[in-house]
Amino acid sequence: MTDDEAAFIAAARSNDAAQFALITEPYRRGLQVHCYRMLANYEDAQDLTQETFLRVWRRRESFRGHATLRTWLYRIATNACLDFLDRRNDRTPVPAELPGADSEVHHLQPYPDRMLPEDPQEAVVARETIELAFIVAAQHLPPRQRAAFILRDVLGWPAPKAADALDLTVASVTSALQRARVTMRERLPDRRLDWRRPATHELSDDERDAVRSYIDAHERNDLDGLTALLRDDLRFTMLPDPGTVTFTARDAVDGWVSNGLFQRGYDDWRCTATTVNRMPAAALYLRAPGDPEYRLFTIAVLRVVEGKIAELTGFDAADKPWLDLPATL
Q: How many CB atoms lie within 10 A of CB 227?
């Protein structure tokens, strides 16, 4: 038993809430990322992390040190997320309005990099498991299959440990994992699937260049320059608006033009480079006619392949202080 685990038991027996909080707080960011992988929504992940700590406090005397404190906390967080998903029927992908566009995850939100774990052991989890494509693909797994996949293939838990956490047999967890892997391979055909092997956290030169060029095109109202940055098979989505997913650059650009991009009222931009979900992004600020300030409008998250934008996911950025972006410029 580690010193932390012994201290946790002592705090539980003495009902020392302050010491309990001191011991469990270092696990918060890791648990919140875990909840985000389960739920794809930053605000829900915050709420479920808090729910996890409430459950931990209520069950504090049941911890005996037979498992590590970290394992015990992640087990409670996983089941809190599963309980949440059992109650909600709006947390599954819905058919896209555009024929052939598969489905959309309307509840998807970006995850601010500043809230990722600071602990190096937590931070070595592969970069891909926080990227939007991975998070979206995981949402296509049934909740318990998703939990088995994350516990086994992302956190690296052995099958008996995952089975115990989910109150399933080892055979059931193994079967769920095999089905989950098939789905993930179908939805991420061009990605490596060794999720537990660390990947770099640094943006590549191509990614940095793409963000700079994207910002430059927006600020100059350069539609041709913007179009030149896009791969022909661009996947574009604007959330939380339904029916915006497109699968070609031409369709995306046509949609932007028809909605008035770079026309009066949508032609005075200032942008800043940032990152979310370990991905390059641009925060777009729009100044309306007569307004003295540029106001935060959207955040565009880019996936760059061979120097061009392969995926562009836009999020409504207003009233989301957790993105840590200034409201005005």
A: 15
- What pLDDT is stored for residue 98 in this prediction? 65
Identify the structural domains of the chain with CATH numbers, from first to last.
Answer: 1-88 (1.10.1740.10), 205-323 (3.10.450.50)
pTM, two decimals, is 0.93
Q: Please provide the DSSP assignment of 135-204 as one string.
A: HHHHHTS-HHHHHHHIIIIIS---HHHHHHHHT--HHHHHHHHHHHHHHHHHH-TTS---TTS----SPP
- In this prediction, residue 71 carries a pLDDT of 94
pLDDT of res. 231: 97
In sequence order, what are the residues at sequence separation of 6 or more whose Cβ sits closer than 8 angstroms to the Cβ of residue 266? 259, 260, 286
Q: Is the pLDDT of residue 126 over 80?
A: no
Average pLDDT over residues 62-83: 93
- Give pLDDT, residue 245: 87
Task: Tell me the two tokens of residue 61.
Answer: 């005397």
- Which residue's structure tokens are 């896009």? 230
By the 8 A CB rule, do 267 and 120 touch? Answer: no
Please report, as a single letter, which amino acid is at residue 279: M
Rounded (10°) angle between helices 17-24 and 3-14: 150
d(CA 125, CA 181): 18
Average pLDDT over residues 32-53: 97
Taking CA atoms, 126 is separated from 13, 98, 180, 220, 278, in Å, by 38, 33, 18, 36, 10
Q: Is 112 exposed, middle or buried (0-12, 13-18, 19+ CB in 10 A)?
A: middle
d(CA 283, CA 296): 7
- Residue 195 amino acid letter: W
Is it the case that residue 237 has pLDDT exceeding 90?
A: yes
